[in-house]
Amino acid sequence: MSLFKPLGRSLVLFLFYLGSLQSVLGSQLLIPMDFEGQKNHLKAYGITYWVLQKQQKVQWLLNYRGGAFLLPDLEETRKECQIRGVSFEVLSDGEAAGLLEAIASPSQNQEAVILEKAPRIAVYSPKDKQPWDDAVTMVLTYAEIPYVTIYDEEVLSDGLAIYDWLHLHHEDFTGQFGKFYGAYRAAPWYIEGKRLAEQRARKLGYDKVSEQKGAVAEKIRRYVIGGGFMFAMCSATDSFDIALAANGVDICEPMFDGDPSQANYQSLLDYDRTFAFTDFTLERSPLRYEFSSIDMTSKRGVPKDTDYFALMEFSAKWDPVPTMLTQNHTALVKGFMGQTTAFVRGEIKPTVIVLGENRGNGEARYIHGIKGKGFFTFYGGHDPEDYQHRVGDPKTELDLHPTSPGYRLILNNVLFPAARKKKQKT
Asked: How much is the average pLDDT of 338-365?
């Protein structure tokens, strides 16, 4: 009997070896994105971007386990996941094929979208801004996704063309210096910021900051129409559209640009030029921290502990674009405030898709649309994990929020340009 014991042990070792060999040579990595399966959703996007940088294709499994990613199984990818704390599962080629076949079934509201290339990312932001002033730069840094910071000089010199995705920092494109005049006009940072903006405008050949910012908005508009992807949060959303509507119209009071606004400027707005909003009314008072009627901040009666918005559900096979942008491990996302917190539903153009809303409060939080050959997404609020961020508040530590649903929406947009384009059905 003892003669068979070594043979039995050898057989076990051989079978174990065969199983290990199959997992290495004939397998793929699944990055789950559901609540139970993933311990760091934000860094999982960074892994996906890292794989794309290596000229490898990734499949984004829409509506499967929170929007999971299917990657080629390489030892270096496994190690990178382990280093970054990203959960992964190993699937044999047969298991992966079976999964994709199930996803392709017409009975499933799921789809596999191929991601082909790591998008080149630019963030439109002043060079002297602190990185924690902007949620997008914070989450890109945390997820280890590289980006380039550009500002007015680069935009006006046609530097946008080399980028696939552009984020607009919490900017004021109207030339009213963020409408901070009422509360902060005596603050040293406000005075210095205004001086530097006026100096920059003159250097670039403009008499007023409003004219220079309007020219920047127009360049960005052309970038999107030509096929670019643009993402904006907080005040960059409505102030961008206001600047487009007010092209050639003086809407600034004397404390902003040294001369009076045009008396009838409201009637001169051209809503045909805007991306998302229409029929809005501008806020004339320089003392109010508000640009227009678009924003819901002062109209909200939602308590903090019940402030959530719901993500809309779309057909993954028929409408893959909005489905990509709403991938998450929860359908309810915590609300958060900003200078522009949410958008009045009645002032959103009918061609724009609402991706997330607080229906009870009549507000949209997250919207998307097509302009020319390009796309834009507007996301209300300042910081998804800082309910009411104020000037001078400390930065958000994303190590404390690695599964943040609100930050995931930003990263969905980052990967969106990597997708192989399909014609949208609706």
From this structure: 96
Return the ∠ at Cα 135 (arms to 130 and 141), rounded to 5°.
75
Question: Of the candidates 348, 122, 366, 293, which has an alpha carbon nearest to the alpha carbon of residue 220?
Answer: 122
Question: What's the pLDDT tens digit per position in 249-293?
Answer: 999 999 999 999 999 999 999 999 999 999 999 999 999 999 999
Give the mean pLDDT of 57-65.
98
Find how far residue 74's CA is from the centre of its chain.
29
* Domains within the chain, CATH numbers bracketed: 5-115 (3.30.70.790), 121-418 (3.40.50.880)
Q: What is the mean pLDDT of the chain?
A: 91
pLDDT band, very low/low/confident/very high, at 39 (cuts 50, 70, 90) = very high
If pLDDT is split at 50, 70 and 90, which confidence band does 46 have?
very high
3-state secondary structure the chain: CCCCHHHHHHHHHHHHHHHHHHHHHCEEEEECCCCCCCCCHHHHHHHHHHHHHCCCCEEEEECCCCCEEEEECCHHHHHHHHHHCCCCEEEEHHHHHHHHHHHHCCCCCCEEEEECCCCCEEEECCCCCCHHHCHHHHHHHHHCCCCEEECHHHHHCCHHHHCCEEEECCCCCCCCHHHCHHHHCCCHHHHHHHHHHHHHHHHCCCCCHHHHHHHHHHHHHHHHHCCCEEEEECHHHHHHHHHHHCCCCCCCCHHHHCCCCCCCHHHHCCHHHCCCECCCCECCCCCCCCCECCECHHHCCCCHHHCEEEECCCCCCCCHHHHHHCCCCCCEEECCCCCCCCEEHHHECCCCEEEEEEHHHCEEEEEEEEECCEEEEEECCCCCCCCCCCCCCCCCCHHHCCCCHHHHHHHHHHHHHHECCCCCCC
**Nearest one of 126, 169, 134, 128 to 389, comparing CA atoms:** 134
Give the Å distances, CA to CA, from 411 to 110, 116, 401.
20, 16, 14
- Sign of the torsion angle spanned by Cα atoms 162, 406, 299, 181: negative
N- to C-terminal Cα distance for the chain?
Answer: 72
pLDDT, position 130? 60
